[in-house]
Amino acid sequence: MEAIATVSLFLTGDEKDAILTSPDPVVKRFQQALRQRVTSRLAVPGLQAETISLGRATLGWWYPCAEYLSDAAMQYALEPTPELAAWLRSTTLTIARRPIGDWVGPWFRSHAEPLTGHLETAHVCWGVAAVLDLAGDVFTEAEQTEVRAMLYDKGVVLCRRWLQRNSHLANWRGILASGALVASAALGHDDLLEEFTPEVARMALAFQPDGSYGESLQYGNYLANALMLAYESLVRKHPVLAAQLDVSAYGRGMGWMAQSMLYRKPMAGWNDEPRARAVNFNDSAALFRPSGDLLLHVAVRYDDAVQAGLARWLFQEYYEPFPTQGPHDLATFGMRNDWGFLTLPLLMNSAPVRSPEAAGLPLTASFSNGNTFIRDNWAATSVLGIQGGANDGIYAPGHLQGDLNSFMLAYNRERLLVDPGHSCYRNLIHGLESASQTHNTCTFLVEQDSLGLQEDLAKIKLLEQRNVLPRRLIYPDGSVGPAVERGGRLRHCQRVGDVSWVVSEVAHAYGAPIQEFTRCWLQAGSHVTFVIDRIRASEPIRTVWNWLLNNRDGQSVARTIGNELVFSRHQSGLRLRQIGPAALAGPVYAYVHDAYHPEPAQLGEGLPGSGLLFRHTDTEASTTITRLHVLIADDVAELDEWEITQADQLLTVARPTLRIQLTGSFAETISLQVWSQGKPVSITEGESGFVVNESL
């Protein structure tokens, strides 16, 4: 079969020639990986997913549809074979001839008449569009006419119907709009492109002003990847339309993505290859890396050299070492991200690599969505990730958890204090894994009734944060309503030397009777973090401090000694002591998930006890609570060397070669001084906020 000389949407003739003749070893590795990925699938008819569990397929055909079809289509465009043509023809015709109800999605999507599209519909549009564009000659003329008609009737029409019925700004809208636009581009319908391009362009407003995303890392990537597909379907043939789409909306968020990444290392149950870990607030997977095609798209299309270089660095760091790492059957859905069919053409023209150090990213940084990060260095011996208040509001509310004033702590490439993540949305535990009581934040007991057994605390109703917000509306004139208030404010974020000071207040996320919940993080160096809580209520409450520890492989050890929690995980350890009267108890066997899956009991879903939940609980109710916690992270062999001593207002945390001292008061206004490496830093609270500077 003759090779295709020119294709218009996803691959130009020049790009094809450059890929096939490139001497670049990176290009060659990814070309071989694409060939291997596609060839291995030819042995399996249709869209059988890779992941098999309990002797059955764990995915419906919708989920791998976009990546399997687009991969095969790109491979065909580069190196066509009769076997590949036959697979593409058979698989695509089977999809096109499915009943329209199948294009709607699985059983948990609405199938009410008249039918509307859902996420799965858009993914089918992407996959079929890629085949028409890159491998259209595998069909007879009559078959191509049939596929084109079905793509419009079962794809574009259903996506449009969803867009017309819904008037809120959310990632769903971006996915459906992208599905309709990419399909319209493949069909060559200019009138449809004029209709859907403004819908896609509006989705730039879903990102925070600095390019971060209010829902989560995972959902921000999912939306950006959809917008990337829309842009790439236009830019080679319809550059004027592509210019209406704002790459900078998400492109300027590469610094946020780089700050969110932790490290790569093997994870139990996922083979021996190093896998990316990320700071996974809200509904985000801990096994996260930004989509490869999205990173290269930013590296090619965004004119900001720093952000483009960071995108290229992220691709180099998290994709180049293992081009064949799978599984690949949930990639476009953003559940287990991977590189895809656009990697090769985009790889040819991307910006030079720029590491976080070369880009000048700060070691302490906060973002519009409330995410704040403290690192001791970019080698990431210690990373503190904080979910603080969002001062700009949330531009795309949804998929939130009750995690304000929660935080995660990783030390020496081990996640110690963790976020639970999320599993299947149809699991009964999803409400619990989203609740404040399973995060490293506070909950409150308002009623004065005495408790029964200690384990009854897990059964009673606690005062927790609300985590379901109103939608951000699109008005009839096309304008978009204001960002949605979540109920918190990041009041301060500053670094002086190796001392970082972060303050967040989130009382409105709880409502009455909570009037103030200010949490302050003071980190000094790589090992010591002080957490100060200041809580006020209009009626007496009992405060519960929740601590979720990582035990996802069952290899962690935790014990309590009075008010102190001692935790070890492999070769890293944590000591956590509350300076105050609350009683420490636990563990409650909680959940820590690796990654989301649309079906229950799949790889990535944590078992009971994968999280160890400990709680400090006040014994008396009060309207005013101030409390200090001391956290020490170190190698397990060094953990017992640390001593915590208190004399008057001087608190000393020391081991033989290192001493951190804290003095001052925080009962009402905060006035502190901390010595780290012999250098004093003062922190003073005034009417206008906090002043942090080196003391003379």
Fourth CATH level, the homologous superfamily of the largest domain: Chondroitin AC/alginate lyase
- Helical content class: 25-40%
CATH class of the largest domain: Mainly Alpha
Compute the separation of the termini in Å: 79 Å
In CATH, the architecture of the largest domain is Alpha/alpha barrel
What Rg, in angstroms, do the CA atoms define? 26 Å
Q: What share of the residues does DSSP label as strand, in percent?
A: 25-35%
**Tally of distinct domains:** 2
Instruction: Please state the average pLDDT score.
Output: 94
Unreliable residue runs: 1-6, 52-57
- Globular, elongated, flat, extended or rod-shaped: what is the shape? elongated
Number of helices: 19
Count of DSSP strands: 28
Main β sheet profile: 11 strands, antiparallel
In terms of structural class, how would the helical and strand content be classed? alpha+beta
The CATH topology label of the largest domain is Glycosyltransferase
Structural features, described:
There is one protein chain. The protein is of the alpha+beta class and 696 residues long. It folds into two domains: 13-48 and 60-107 and 115-359, Alpha/alpha barrel (Glycosyltransferase); 364-637, Beta-galactosidase, Chain A, domain 5 (Distorted Sandwich). The protein has 19 helices and 28 strands. The strands form six sheets. Strands 11, 13, 14, 15, 16, 17, 18, 19, 20, 21 and 22 form an eleven-stranded antiparallel beta sheet that branches. A hairpin with a 5-residue loop joins β25 (658-665) and β26. Mean pLDDT is 94; it is low at 1-6 and 52-57. One of its GO terms (molecular function) is lyase activity. Residues 393-559 form the Heparinase II/III-like C-terminal domain. Pfam families: Hepar_II_III_C.
